[in-house]
């Protein structure tokens, strides 16, 4: 299936011209789709359904630089190639600073130039995404890392204060993890961590986030979730891990359990840091009361 490219341009003739150029590509073929306004273009770009975007500089009363900045601020990762009728260097630099990966002057465009620019932007976009993943993900489990936890917790703290929403945190810890490493080796320990991370992450909604907090601890940050919702998830994570043994080799299957503690904001905490402390206290209470269980902070 051909990859989709989005053109955001208020000129239908530019769309027809680029369609003709696309037909003359020598390598990969793409499906070119068109958005004629700033608003439609931004909305379609943010869906994340396009491999790349060709973006015109002038879009009615607004311009492509504004659109790039707005899209990037809302988490857009789609590679963008900037189009303009101007050849001034200031536009080139401004487009790159805003987040575009390449730049084409309309009057100089040829099929070969468009194809080369798309190929370059797509490859660079893949490289940047790989680097971004390395910077934000834990290499062993694939979960978000501790740095991302701290950043997103701060954002969620601000969102709770501003919009009066609720948020919740579930802290999960693998029971007797040290004995797995001591008895079966670190390779087995890594296998347990990966599988527990997968099972726990499968329990959260797509809008929530799962992090490797450190060592054998996993943090689940839940948006617009109250005490009851957080405690329900904490119990489900315990059941999901306990349900089936984890294969750490062709011949060894281990029965693994986790303990979990939950807390919600603003019910149990008035800041992101105090939410973390509350969920941590609930987690340690769960371990102190025999492990393989979930404890909510409000029951302490």
Walk me through this protein's architecture.
There is one protein chain. This protein has about 300 residues and is an alpha/beta fold. It folds into two domains: about 5-135, Rossmann fold, CATH 3.40.50.2300; about 145-300, Reverse transcriptase/Diguanylate cyclase domain (Alpha-Beta Plaits), CATH 3.30.70.270. It is built from ten helices and 14 strands. It has helices at about 10-25, 40-45, 65-75, 90-100, 110-135, 145-165, 175-185, 185-200, 225-240, 270-290, and strands at about 5-10, 30-35, 50-55, 60, 60-65, 80-85, 100-105, 165-175, 210-215, 215-225, 245, 255, 260-265, 295. The strands form four sheets. The protein has a five-stranded parallel β-sheet with strand order 2-1-3-6-7, with helices on both faces. Strand 13 (about 260-265), helix 10 and strand 14 form a beta-alpha-beta unit. Helix 1 crosses helix 5 and helix 7 (about 175-185) runs antiparallel to helix 8. About 35% of the residues are buried.
Considering the chains and any ligands shown, give keywords for the structure.
300 residues; Rossmann fold; Alpha-Beta Plaits; 2 domains; five-stranded mixed β-sheet; 14 strands
């Amino acid at each position: 299936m051909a990859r989709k490219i989005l053109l955001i341009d208020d000129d239908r003739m530019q769309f027809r011209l680029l369609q003709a150029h696309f037909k003359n590509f020598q390598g990969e073929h793409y499906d070119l789709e068109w958005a004629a306004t700033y608003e439609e273009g931004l909305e379609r770009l943010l869906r994340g359904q396009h491999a790349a975007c060709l973006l015109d500089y002038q879009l009615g009363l607004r311009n492509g630089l504004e659109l790039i900045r707005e899209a990037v601020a809302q988490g857009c990762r789609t590679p963008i190639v900037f189009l303009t009728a101007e050849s001034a260097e200031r536009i080139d630099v401004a487009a790159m600073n805003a987040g575009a990966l390449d730049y084409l002057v309309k009057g100089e465009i040829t099929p070969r130039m468009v194809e080369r620019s798309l190929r370059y932007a797509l490859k660079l976009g893949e490289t940047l995404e790989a680097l971004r993943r390395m910077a934000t993900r834990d290499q062993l489990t694939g979960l978000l890392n501790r740095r991302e936890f701290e950043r997103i917790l701060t954002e969620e703290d601000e969102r709770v204060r501003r919009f009066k929403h609720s948020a919740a945190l579930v802290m999960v810890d693998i029971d007797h993890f040290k004995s797995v490493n001591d008895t079966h080796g670190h390779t087995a320990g890594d296998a347990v961590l990966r599988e527990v991370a997968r099972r726990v992450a499968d329990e959260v909604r797509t809008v929530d986030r799962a992090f490797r907090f450190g060592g054998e601890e996993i943090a689940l940050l839940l948006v617009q979730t109250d005490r009851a919702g957080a405690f329900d998830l904490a119990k489900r994570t315990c059941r999901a891990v306990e349900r089936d043994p984890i294969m750490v080799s062709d011949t060894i299957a281990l029965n693994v359990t986790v303990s979990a503690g939950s807390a919600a904001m603003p019910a149990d905490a008035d800041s992101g840091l105090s939410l973390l402390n509350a969920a941590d206290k609930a987690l340690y209470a769960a371990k102190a009361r025999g492990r393989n269980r979930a404890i909510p902070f409000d029951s302490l």
